[in-house]
Every structure is written in C-alpha cells, then in structure tokens.
Amino acid sequence: MTVPPPATEAAPPAPQRCGLIAIVGRPNVGKSTLLNALVGQKVSITSDKAQTTRHRITGVRTVDEAQFVFVDTPGFQTKHNAALNRNLNRTVHGVLADVDLVLFVVEAGRFGLDDAKVLALLPEDKPVVLVANKLDAVHRRAELAPWLKGMAERRNFAEFVPLSAKKEADVTRLFKILKPYLPEQGWFYEEDALTDRSEKFLASEIIREKLFRLTGDELPYTSTVVIDKWEDEGELRRISASIIVERDAHKGMIIGQGGERLKRIGSESRQELEHLMDGRVFLELWVKVRSGWADSEEHLRSYGYE
C-alpha cells in the first residue's frame, strides 16, 4: 500500500498594495508620455509645447496584487508669475504633500537649472526615484555612468531608473522597481480602472492637445478648452466646446485661412474621441477671446483649475 505524500498547503495570497505616486519634473521631459505608458492608455496630453499639462491627472494601473495610482503634474513654472503659473505650482505642491512616492523625471544625460529648481522643491521625507527618460536619445551610453554618479551626489535617490517611456519592456521593469514602495493596503479603485477623470474632462484635454500640436509655437500656452454642452443620444455624443484665447490675433491663428486649421483641429479631435469612447461623436468648436483670463483667479476657477 502506497502512502500518499502529505498535502502541501497553498501559499497565502500576497497582500494587496496600493499607493499614490507623483510624476514631477520640468516641462517637456516626457512626464505625460510616461504616465500614458504606465496606464496603458492616453489620460494626459502630450505636446512639444511647454506647460500643456494643467491639472492633476490621475492614472491607475493594477498589476497582480499592486495598484499604482499615478498623479501627473504641471511642470514647475519658474519663469513667469501669472495667476495661471501660481495655480500650477500650488497644484504641484499639493500633490507632493499627499503621495507615497515621487518619480523625478529628467532627460537622460542632462540636468539643467530648471531641473535643479524642481529637485530643490521635492520633499525630504518621501522616497524619490530618479527616472532618466529619453534613454533612446543617448548615443553614447558610456557617458551615462559619470552622469548618474553626479546625480547621486545631488540627492540620496531611492532608485535610479534609466529608460525610454516608449519601450514597453522599460515600463514593465519600472513597475517591478516601484512595487515594494507601495504601502500594504486595499486598492483605491476597481481593478480595471484607468483614470478618475470624466469623459468630459478627457475630451477637453484631447481638443487642447490637437490645438497645441497644430498651432506649433505660434500660439501662446495661455489657451484652454471648455466643454459648453454634452448630450448623449444612444451611441452618439454631441459635444460643443470653446477654445479660449487672450487676443483676437490668437483667434485668427487657430481658425486659419478659410477656417482650415480649426476644421483640422476638430476633425482630429473627433476621430480620437470616437476611438476613446467607442462610439460616434458630433463635435462643434468655437473660438472665444477672454482677455487676461490666465491672470484672473475668477476665470481660472470658472474654467476648472483647482
């Protein structure tokens, strides 16, 4: 008679982890691109124009037992003192007070005065991970070692992670590095959640992205988008939105000759919205001049700035 081997007890499931992670850095280091890669879907707009991220954007990604809640922030503004910029910097400070972990994003191999100003503002009581983004743009990797040594002398970083936000393998590696820093606690969101932002907010961000991409450096960054009307008719969404600018000349830049540029902004926005919302979209765009809105606390509140 054979004796069966003793039953092995199943290992207890790993405890859930969940934490808030801020993504900070000067403008244009790739913070929004990194957030979108981490979430696996666009939740924050990307543009070559500095200062396109204006609000806290929460992106969520659940990997195995760990839920990562990412908070994108505006790049710290150090050059101008308009109400909009003061508002953006208050947003960054508010985010940093709440999080469990900070990702300090810089361009691999580069560290300038604006990077240093952001680093000086990071809290001393939070673990900070140095993310050296745009690694694919570094032609001589041997030069990174002395650069990383110099960065280590600037702050006691919890981790150093050179990567390219555009490479899936690098993003997967980043999740594994960040996981131990998340507190052991229940998840904040459902397992399949991607963002806490509404469809209306994402629509305004997508329109704003197309606006900046199609106007290039012509249009000052003090332009915003407000959703005026949103109606659901079965699978069809009827959206009316206003692009707010400060001067009549800016209005002309957006409309373009014969209205061609505004039509293109509307067409590209509609196509992306239909893909995002998996349904038909009727989009109507207007351009309105509101002189001095970016330096008016009242206007900022009415346009949804925190």
From TrEMBL:
Which named protein is this? GTPase Era
Q: What is the lineage of its organism?
A: Bacteria, Pseudomonadati, Pseudomonadota, Betaproteobacteria, Burkholderiales
Subunit structure of this entry? Monomer.
Residues annotated as binding GTP are 25-32, 72-76, 133-136
Keyword Ribosomal protein listed? The answer is: no
Residues covered by region (G3): 72-75
Task: Give the location in the cell.
Answer: Cytoplasm; Cell membrane
Q: What is its main location?
A: cytoplasm
Q: Which UniProt keywords apply?
A: Cell membrane, Cytoplasm, GTP-binding, Membrane, Nucleotide-binding, Ribosome biogenesis, RNA-binding, rRNA-binding
SUPFAM superfamilies recorded? P-loop containing nucleoside triphosphate hydrolases, Prokaryotic type KH domain (KH-domain type II)
List residues of the KH type-2 domain.
207-291
Region described as G2: spans on this chain = 51-55
Question: How does the record classify its membrane topology?
Answer: Peripheral membrane protein
User: According to the UniProt record, where is the region G4?
Assistant: 133-136
Which residue ranges are recorded for the region named G1? 25-32
Q: What are the boundaries of the region G5?
A: 163-165
Q: Which NCBIfam families match?
A: era, PRK00089.1, small_GTP
